[in-house]
Structures are given as C-alpha cells and as structure tokens.
Design a protein that fits this description.
Rossmann fold; alpha/beta; tt1808, chain A; globular; 5 domains
Length: 957
C-alpha cells in the first residue's frame, strides 16, 4: 500500500470539513479573496457595500500588525456610508459564535517577497482565521511548522495583510496534528496537541478535525479562548486541559454553589487558566465579585504582572489592607490580593462597616496554589465571613491523606476543604505532551552505582545532623558544583538553584563558595536569599517576603539566631550590591522585597534577547525554601539538592527546572547530595502513578550513549567521512545528511549534561565531530544565502536546530589569546595551530560570521607583528577600520544617512528589538514607493543584522 499523498490528505480534509458544515469555495488568489470577503461581510452584517464603502473597510482592516488586527477582528467599525449616515459593522460575533459564516478553501496563492501557495484555509465571515498546513504521512511535522514561519515572513503581509488575521495555525502530517496561536514563532515547542477531557491526545487529522475544527468548537475557541497578552503583544491560545478546566469552573458557577479544585501540575500554565476563568466568571450576571487570592507577597506581585499582561489594568495590586478594602467595597469585578491581607480585611473591626454590603453578595474566590494557604484557620474565617461565597483552588500538588500535615485543626486534605477535583492534569500528562521537560536526576556520592564521580561525601545511610553539616563534606560538595556547573548549564548559559537544609548550613555554603572564589578556584556569580525571621529548617514552613501586617506561619528562631542570620544576610546582600552595582538591604522591608525581585529578574530575564550576559548573569542562588515553589524562570535548568525533600515539596522543588525552552534545554537537571531515591519514588507515585519513572526521568547515561551510537552509525552510512559531505548530490541527499547529523546533535546535547560524558567512550573523536559540524554549518549557510536571492529550497523548511551547537565561551578575545600563543611557537607547530584556529572559526556560531575578516588579519597583518603583546591592539585597530568600511559600504549601497543608521544599529544592539520599517525609512534620502517599501526595508534590516553579527555579537562574551 502506497503512502497517502499530501494532495489526498488535503482533499479528504476538505470533504470532512464540508460534512461538518463548512461551505466549500474556490479562492485562487488575493483578488478573489477580497471579492469573497466583501460578499461575506455583506451577508454577515445584512447590508450591501458600495465600492467606496468597502474601500474604507479594507483600509481599516489593513492597519496594524497581527496583535492589533486581533483586536480589530473582535471590535466594531464605524464609518460614514455614501448617504452620509454613521454605519457600524462587525467582523466576528464572539457572543453567538455559531452566527458566524464558515467557509473552506485551498491553494490560495499570494505573492510577497516570494510567491507562496497555502494548503487549506478556513474563512470566517470572509477573513482567513485558521491556516492549515499539511505534510504527507511519514514526514516530520516540524516541516509544516517551519513552512508557516516562512509564509509569515514572505507573504502573509501582502494583499491588505488579510492573512495577518489568522488566529490559529494547524499543522499535520495526517498521523500527528497540532495547533498553535499566530504570533512571532520561535520554536515548535509552542505547538500543542488537542485532547479529550481525560487528557488523551487526539493526533489523527480526521479525529482532530471532528473534535476541534467543527464550527461550534472552533468558533468558541476564537471567541473565548484566545488571549491577547498586552505586555508581550502576542496571541496565546489555551491548551486542552486549560480549556476543560475553565469550562468546568464556569459550569460549576452557573449551576451550583459547590466549591471545587483544579489539579494541574506545576509548570502547566496555571496563571493563564485562572485568568481566563476569572475573566469569564466575572462577566456572569449572577456573580458580584471575583477575588483571586495568592498566599505570598512575591507571588502577589508576579501574578499581578501576568494578569495585567493578558489584559491591561485588569487588576490593581493591593498595596495594603486599606486599599484592598476599598476595592472590595467598590464596583471592581476582579480583585487580586494576598491571603494575609484578605484575612486582615475580614477580621479587623475597623473595616467591617465598609465591607458589610459584600458579606451576603455572590463572591467567587479563586486560590492560587491552594495547598500552601488553606490549611490553617483562615479558610474557616473566609467561609464564615462571605456567606454566599464559592471557593475554587488551583494546585499542582494536592494534599492527600498520605502527605497531609497535622495542625490544631487536625489532618485535612484538599478534598476536605474544596470538595471534588473538577479536572486533573498530572506531571506524566504534561511530560507526554511536551508541555514540561523530563528530569535528569543524579545521586552524587556513594549513592552513585555506575559511572565516574570525583566525590565521595561519606553520608550514605547516615542521618546525623553533625555529619551533614560537617564543613569538609560541604567543601567537597562545593568543589563538585564548581567542577560540573559548566557542564550542567551549557557553560553558564543557564542558571541553577541550590536547595540546602537550613539557614546555618546555607551560611556555611555561601562562605565556602566565597573563599574559593577569592582563592581563584571559580568565577561563579552566587547569591542567596532567605527569610531571617522564619525557622526554615521546618520542612512545612513556607517562605514569605516580609509582611508587616501579618505574622508568618513558622515559629521564629531565637533572637540571637535571628540577629546573626540577618547580619549575615546583610553581608551577603552587600556582596550582591557590589557585584551588580545596586543597593539593597534588610533594613527596609521595601529594599528587601526589591532584592528578591532583582534576583528573580536576573534569572527570568536571561531568556530575553537583550539580556546582557556579561553584566547581568547570575549563576547560582542558594536557598532553603524560597523560590522552590511558585517561581518560574525558563533559564533555570539545574537544581542542586542538599536537603531532605519529600512529597509535594519534592515535586515543587524539582519543577523549578523543567520549563520548556527550545531544543537545547532537553531536561531539568537534579543533582542530589542526599539519597532521595525512595522519597522521589514515593512522590512520583503519589502525584502520578507508580510506573511513571520512564515517563518522568530521562534514561541513564548508557542508554543515551546507545542512541548516540545508533545515530552515528546512520550518519556514517550517508557520509562515511566529513569530506564526503561535499560529494552529496542534490537536495535530497543533503536533506538526509542534515537529518542524520541533527539526530546526532540531539543525543550529544543530552549526553553533555551527564557527569559521565567523555569523548573517549564514544565512537567519534571531538575533532571529527567538529569537522562534521562545520560541514553542517556550511550547508545551513548555503541554504540561507540561496534563499535571499532565489526561490526557497526544500531544505528551508528543515530546522537545523543551531542552538544545539552554540558555544558562548569561544569569542574573539579567546581567538586573540590563541594568536598570541601562535607567535611563540616554531613554524611547523604554528602551522598546525593556525589550521586549528581556522577550524575553530568554522565550527562556532558566533565566529563563523567573522571568519573571513579574522583569516584576513591572520594572513595579512599577523606576520608583520613582531611583539605578541601588540596583537590585541593591532587587531582592535584592524577591526575598527573594517567596521567603518562595512558601515560606509551599506550606507552607500542603500543611500542611508550614516549617523542615523548607526543610531538605529546601536538601539537594536541595546534593546534587542528589530527596528520597524518606518524607522529604517527615516535613514533614507528618499522614501521608497509603497510597492518597493517592504522589499527595501527587509533588505536593509538583513544587512544590519549581518553587520551586527560580524562586528558586535560575540566580541567579548
């Protein structure tokens, strides 16, 4: 039986869509698309437009980018008709989504930078709102994803920008089908499976079409479940478990007054789910007020920012209890606050008069991470005060009988307090869906059964505090972290948390690391934070930022211990202040709160394009409890553990490391210096199932090494040597090589995170691998350069996953050091070293763009330099001259004002934001015509990026 072709897949899909209620039409080009749009908008709005009137509508639709057009889609447009009357029209009905008009067409051709033909397009009221891209069965779905990326760059903006109204993309090869929102696409990781309510993925295109693309469901998704993030100016679409949770919450509010909770594992996007639930519930006529309640001041701030990023000014953070009371008493429908302030508001007599009118009103309370906040007497106070309330809890780690702690009120579970679980999405579901990463866990010390380790920490089966706190042991662990931190974090590209047992041990660790830094043993940037007034050795205690209005849950330490801890913390903060040129302390609660936020920001901001790695990087944060729950930073990939984690605390802590971020971050690294094997197994069993090990943890080193060997064997069949890559004939053979080497890269990426990684144990040496890598790069560059001048090749839709071979530690300064060494060697040795340097230039992402100029310096300038100490100065002079020449060349070729263009480059370099064409055009002597504007703007921006790659990126760090 032959494989189903892409055409067959397309025809079958269209036939199925027609059966679901879509009207099939033929739209061959942009003109036909516009004509159909006019007819559909007329039918939808029950009117007829003259040519002049429709031109006004088209002009309105053409304005803005994808994000702005998503607002236009959901709004109304007022214009003056030919009779001089004010007329309103709509483009989409969000209230009655079945009243919209659904059509399907295929093979629409549009020409922008290149001519593109799209597979299947779903039109709603004449606007293309869903674009479906198909690949035949057996092909990688990522090719369809990359094709969408290409369409966005090349042609979606043409023909009045109507394809920028696309809200959702669907990609499928028939067997695997995924969906995603229309935004600036970065990674295939942003694509999602649809599933049923029990989290069973619906992968087959026919099943997906029935469940997701039927007009009723698709209309609902577009109407209610696409969120516009105001902060990031992107569209976000809910994943299936988020959708089901919100639907169930809304139904619960509409039909009952029963409480309930949602169990969605840590890292699954709880804030987006709770925001959408709050937004829909607050609009229900029967609801008077929605309170979103967090239990920590830091989360109050973090969640407020996220809520307001989804909808600007949707919540106003309550700075104090009085502010909260005012919001509770006014007509604000949605209020965000901490549980401590809410407790103050309902228990202090001074606020009773203001709040009396709310006591019997319909109030819905949504609790963030309810496992932390609802097991004292505050829960009862809230339910007693709000007599007509309905409570919903969100948690990634519910409290069951097995992990419940006893207090004065007894042992209580999440079910005891909130009732039934409305929807469940556990960690095994999230990992299976690629929504979070697996964990790579290593037990260091005598726990390690196989492989090599430099550490014997002598604590197996010993549970004596004195041994755990022994400074010799702590010193060995610090040495281990110093030795392997680069391997775990891709040469400090990622950051780590270090969880320790108590404040006293934390202080010892910090001092040890500082001593070793002063001794020149490492250059790691290490910070710490802890609540000096809380007994953090209590494993059930939670960390809070200082809150003068409420006492903390944990018992305070002795005055002496607290005083000593605070003095030490102030000294550690002083180190931090010096390292980053800031000024924080514990002397003022605001300054301490800002210190926490600054640490958080440095960890979170690493994923931003404009992050200054050399100036802002923070490598390790040592904590006891802080940041182990509720803190998310995608560039944290490692957790070092020297404390006895268990149950929900263990899952929460591990989950700080497993947020999805591109191809390089393949797992969350857990490095345990205590034997937590049984505790880990127990926690996984409690929060997923007892057979979940293979789902949650990446395999041992030996298993990944086997995958590497298999990938290498396949590569060598295609290209027996790296020289044979040049002998490949045609794009099909080149495609086979790219796919084979990429598979090898993926396996190597995972292997490098293991302590056991050693080139000598693999079937290829490091230099040969680097040679293959250089050929791989050359092929990528060829495809990229060809596509700037001619129609794209089949390789353009292949993701080369270049991030897997990014090496930050190699830069121009490093090369200059090699050149200095070159001058001191004899001629034969110098020739070998010279070749090695040239190979290095070809194999590194940041240096490839500079290779031609550095080779020119080596050939023409280096022989004339007698003193090796002068190499750096001579190179800097050479580089400045070349930089000036390159800038002048661009400006002369494109008729640009050099001063203005240079300012634009500096702005781009500083903030990482690509300039808009309007700013580029300001640098031109004459503004181009509308027909030529995009082509010229794109060409200049491309030259700018190339200039920055060569002369700015990777020069120092």
């Amino acid at each position: 039986m032959s494989k189903q072709s892409e055409l067959q897949l397309e025809n079958n899909l269209i036939k199925q869509l027609v059966g679901l209620g879509y009207h099939k039409i033929t739209v061959l080009d942009g003109d036909t698309l516009v004509s159909n749009l006019k007819r559909q908008l007329e039918a939808f709005n029950d009117c007829v437009f003259s040519t002049k009137e429709f031109d006004k509508i088209l002009n309105h639709l053409e304005k803005g980018n994808v994000f702005e057009k998503s607002k236009t889609l959901r709004g109304r447009f007022q214009f003056v008709n030919d009779n001089g009357e004010a007329t309103y029209i709509r483009f989409f009905d969000s209230e009655d989504w079945n009243a919209n008009l659904f059509q399907v067409t295929n093979q629409i051709t549009q020409e922008g930078t290149y001519k593109n033909r799209y597979d299947v397009t779903l039109l709603v009221n004449g606007l293309p709102l869903v674009q479906i891209e198909l690949k035949r069965r057996g092909l990688e779905i990522k090719e369809a994803f990359n094709q969408i990326n290409r369409y966005q760059r090349h042609s979606f903006w043409s023909n009045h920008g109507l394809f920028q109204y696309v809200q959702l993309f669907i990609i499928s090869n028939g067997t695997i089908t995924k969906y995603l929102a229309n935004n600036a696409l970065q990674s295939v990781k942003q694509t999602f499976f649809w599933s049923d309510v029990h989290n069973k993925n619906i992968k087959e295109l026919t099943d997906f079409t029935t469940a997701f693309l039927n007009p009723d469901h698709l209309g609902l998704m577009i109407a209610k479940y696409i969120v516009r993030s105001e902060t990031h100016k992107i569209l976000m679409v809910l994943r299936p478990y988020q959708y089901y949770a919100v639907e169930k919450l809304v139904k619960q509010v509409k039909t009952t007054t029963d409480n309930a909770y949602i169990w969605h594992t840590t890292g699954s996007g709880k804030t987006l789910t709770s925001f959408k639930a709050s937004q829909i519930i607050m609009d229900l006529p029967s609801v008077d007020k929605v309170l979103f309640v967090v239990d920590r001041k830091d989360l109050d701030y973090q969640t407020m920012k996220e809520f307001n990023s989804f909808k600007k000014d949707s919540v106003d953070v309550t700075n104090n209890t009085n502010s909260l009371v005012n919001q509770l008493a006014d007509d604000s429908k949605l209020v965000l606050t901490t549980i401590q302030k809410l407790n103050n508001a309902i228990t202090k007599n001074q606020y009773d008069k203001k709040l009396s009118g709310l006591k019997n009103r319909r109030v819905v309370l949504i609790f963030d991470e309810c496992h932390r906040s609802q097991f004292g007497d505050t829960h009862q106070k809230i339910t007693d005060y709000f007599t007509n309330s309905q409570l919903f809890g969100f948690t990634g780690t519910p409290i069951f009988a097995d992990n419940a702690s006893k207090n004065d009120l007894g042992k209580r579970t999440t079910k005891d307090l909130f009732g039934e679980c409305l929807h469940k999405y556990v960690i095994t579901d999230a990992i299976a869906d690629d929504n979070v990463l697996k964990f790579g866990i290593e037990y260091i010390g005598r726990y390690k059964q196989k492989g090599r380790t430099l550490l014997d920490i002598d604590v197996e089966d010993i549970d004596k505090a004195a041994v755990f706190k022994d400074e010799k042991r702590l010193g060995k662990i610090a040495d281990y972290i110093i030795a392997y931190h680069n391997a775990k974090t891709f040469d400090k590209e990622y950051s780590a948390l270090f969880a320790v047992n108590d404040i006293k041990t934390l202080i010892k660790y910090y001092d040890i690391f500082q001593e070793k830094k002063r001794a020149g043993e490492h250059n790691l940037r290490i910070a710490t934070i802890f609540s000096y007034g809380a007994n953090e050795a209590n494993e059930d205690a939670q960390d809070y930022l200082p809150d003068n209005e409420t006492s903390q849950a944990a018992e305070p330490e002795s005055d002496y211990t607290t005083s000593h801890s605070r003095e030490k913390l102030d000294a550690f903060i002083a180190d931090y202040n010096k390292m980053y040129n800031v000024s924080f302390s514990t002397k003022d609660s605001k300054l301490f709160e800002d210190y926490f936020k600054d640490i958080s920001r440095r960890l979170k901001d690493r994923e931003k394009k404009n992050f200054n790695d050399a100036k802002d990087r923070l490598d390790i944060v040592i904590v006891v409890n802080m940041m182990l729950t509720g803190f998310d930073a995608k560039k944290v990939n490692t957790l070092y553990v020297d404390k006895n984690l268990k149950q929900h605390g263990l899952i929460q802590a591990f989950s700080r490391t497993n947020r999805i971020l591109g191809e390089k971050k393949s797992q969350g690294n857990i490095v345990c210096f205590r034997n937590l094997k049984k505790a880990t197994d127990d926690a996984i069993t409690l929060f997923s199932n007892k057979n979940a090990d293979e789902t949650i943890f990446i395999p041992p080193y030996e298993n990944i090494a086997e995958k590497f060997d298999e990938a290498l064997e396949h590569l060598l069949k295609i290209t027996p040597s790296y020289q044979s890559v040049d002998d490949l004939v045609g794009e099909d053979q080149e495609l086979q090589f790219v796919q084979a080497f990429r598979r090898l890269l993926r396996a190597k990426n995972v292997l490098e995170s293991y302590v056991d990684f050693d080139w000598e144990t693999l079937g290829i040496d490091e230099q040969t691998f680097a040679n293959y890598q250089s050929e791989y790069w050359d092929l990528h560059d060829k495809v990229k350069n060809n596509n700037q001048t001619q129609k794209v090749s089949i390789l353009d839709d292949i993701d080369f996953e270049l991030e897997l071979i990014h090496r930050d530690q190699i830069n121009v300064i490093y090369i200059l050091q090699l050149l200095a060494n070159l001058k001191t060697k004899d001629k034969s040795e110098a020739a070998k070293q010279k070749k090695a340097i040239i190979d290095l230039l070809g194999g590194d992402v940041k240096l490839r763009s500079k290779r031609e100029l550095i080779e020119k310096f080596i050939e023409e300038n280096l022989p004339n330099i007698k003193d090796s100490d002068r190499i750096t100065d001579e190179f800097e002079n050479f580089w400045k001259e070349e930089k000036v020449k390159a800038l002048s060349k661009i400006c002369n070729e494109e008729n640009l004002d050099q001063q203005q263009f240079n300012s634009l480059i500096q702005s781009y370099t500083y903030n990482g934001q690509e300039p808009i064409r309007q700013d580029v055009f300001k640098c031109l002597d004459n503004r181009p015509s509308i027909l030529k504007a995009r082509e010229i703007g794109d060409r200049i921006i491309l030259k700018m990026k190339k200039y920055i790659d060569i002369f700015i990126t990777g020069m120092t760090g």
